[in-house]
Amino acid sequence: MPNLPSQVKIVEVGPRDGLQNEKETISAAVKTELVDRLTQAGFANIEAASFVSPKWVPQMATSAEVMANITRGPGTIYSALTPNMQGFEAALAARADEVVIFGSASEAFSQKNINCSIAESIARFEGVARAAKQNGLRLRGSISCAFGCPYQGEVPLSAVADVVARMRDLGCDEIDIADTIGVATPRQTQAVMDTAIRAFHVAGLSGHFHDTYGQALANIYASLETGIAIYHSSVSGLGGCPYAKGATGNVATEDVLYMMNGLGIATGIDLDLVVDAGQFISQQLGRKGSSRAGNALAAKRLA
Ligand SMILES: CC(=O)SCCNC(=O)CCNC(=O)[C@H](O)C(C)(C)COP(=O)(O)OP(=O)(O)OC[C@H]1O[C@@H](n2cnc3c(N)ncnc32)[C@H](O)[C@@H]1OP(=O)(O)O
Ligand SMILES: CC(=O)CC(=O)O
After folding, report:
1. 66, 90, 100, 167 — which has fewest CB within 10 A?
2. Over the stretch 203-225, which tens digit does the pLDDT of each residue have?
3. pTM flag (> 0.90)
4. Number of folded domains in the chain?
């Protein structure tokens, strides 16, 4: 049995990554209730908002209202995406605990997603990073397309190493290695994670896996073997990226928790309450959730 971490942090990204791609407008009240349910379930970190252009991502336009109305848990960090100073100022006003600068290891994706090159994005993030530190906010860097890009295909390890180093030099407390389109497989995952670990301390790295090809849980297990102990997931497997067509949601939180529980890895999260939250948001969206464990556990309750 390989030596796996004895505990992990699960960052719940459903309210942001999970909902950002929904076509029908979801009310701020529903989003607020979702965040509150997730807080009750015991998450130490919830990605609750995104202060991006409402023209680019209309679903996130209610972020300030959601942040104003949630009931904050004393031990929970509420994060918000901030692509530039305009986003940062909004996140600060909304009392975000952590801001997320989000770049890419792929030039093509950077242009499509945030309308600038990787180098331009890093220059933009410098102001956000400085302001975050000055205001005592945590700073997280997210690196999209670390395993493959919907526009340019392969992404070399050297590109991942380069952006991790740039995020590190900006002073990020945590850096996410993201499989935006869910194409990675376990050996590749370990190669990318080992590359990131050479550029940043392992305790500050996280794995953000979408599940398009059904590989996300296997990739999380592979990452556990490299020592990575922070994972992102989305309740009910919600999600997708408006600038990565065809990509499905993040790995489902219920499935990750079920696996961690089985491995004896502590998360501090109440799986039953996450299943309830998944049922709630699925009902609101009018469709069955895509978490295998969530659906099985909900069916067992009815049996
Ligand atoms: C993999 C993932 O899931 S990542 C998450 C999903 N992707 C995203 O959220 C990316 C969203 N992208 C964006 O919001 C945009 O590309 C931006 C804001 C980063 C850059 O867009 P640009 O058009 O180059 O911005 P620019 O600075 O030129 O401003 C254009 C307009 O956007 C507005 N804008 C810029 N930044 C923001 C912001 N953070 N919040 C709200 N509005 C903004 C400006 O006020 C301006 O408005 P106007 O036309 O009414 O004057
Ligand atoms: C910011 C993100 O949402 C990360 C990704 O999936 O690319």
Report:
1. 90
2. 999 999 999 999 999 999 999 99
3. yes
4. 1
Pocket of ligand 2 (CB under 6 A): 17, 102, 142, 144, 178, 180, 208, 241
* Neighbour tally for 214: CB within 10 Å: 10
Residue 71 sits in a domain of what CATH number? 3.20.20.70
Mutation to probe ligand 2, out of 106, 180, 230 (largest number of atoms < 8 A from CB): 180
263 falls within a domain: yes
In-domain check, residue 117: yes
Nearest CA to ligand 1 atom 22: 115
- CA atoms of 301 and 298, how far apart (whole Å): 5
- What is the residue range of 228's domain? 9-302
Nearest CA to 216 out of 232, 240, 195, 198 is that of 232
* Cβ atoms within 10 Å, residue 194: 13
What ipTM does the predicted assembly reach? Answer: 0.99
Residue type, 154: E
Do 242 and 144 touch, CB atoms closer than 8 A? no
* pLDDT above 80: residue 46: yes
119 lies in some domain: yes
Query: Residue 6 class from Cβ within 10 Å (0-12 exposed, 13-18 middle, 19+ buried)?
Result: exposed
Which residues are CB-neighbours of 227 under 8 A, at least 6 positions away?
A: 5, 197, 202
Whether the CB-CB separation of 271 and 287 falls below 8 Å is answered with no
Positions annotated as catalytic residues are 241
Q: What is the pLDDT of residues 103-124, one digit of tens each?
A: 999 999 999 999 999 999 999 9
Q: Which residue has the tokens 């909900």?
A: 298
CA pair distance 108, 106, nearest whole angstrom: 5
Contact 194, 169 (CB under 8 A): no
How far, in Å, CA of 74 to CA of 10, rounded?
17
Q: Find the 235 Cα to ligand 2 centroid distance in Å.
A: 15
Could you give the CA distance from residue 235 to residue 258 in angstroms, rounded to a whole number?
Answer: 12
